[in-house]
Please model this.
Amino acid sequence: MKDQEFHVRCTAEMKNLIARRASILDISMTSLIKNATLCPYFIKYEYPKEVESLKIELAKIGSNINQLVKAMNEINAMSKKFHDINLYLDNPDYRNLAENAASIMNTFKEFSSSVVPQLETLTIKPEKVFYRDVEIAFEEDPNLKAKIEREL
Model:
């Protein structure tokens, strides 16, 4: 039997937000607040460590390629400025190297822009984590978990 009251003070904006959310969920404000505060768990989203390290390595590779292309452009600019030589036009080996570097950079950008989002969507693992006090209660009463899940 529900024979206790509990009052919470909040701003008008907070109350409006709670009312709007309750309306969207088609439940009472009381039910929304009870569900939010009495929920025995939270959802934890975690990337596997391998994915995080792969993302870091991809970023480093991309940065290195970008630095290489930038350095080649700077070398050519200096050659033009001080020696009146355009390495892209005057040196076929340099031009070929620059074209290959630019091609590698574009290929890498295409690859990483398609792979990184896939890594994020495919590897996020949501996990239901029970609060420690709830875990202790489950240990004390093995039937409690089923009771709680029926009520939520």
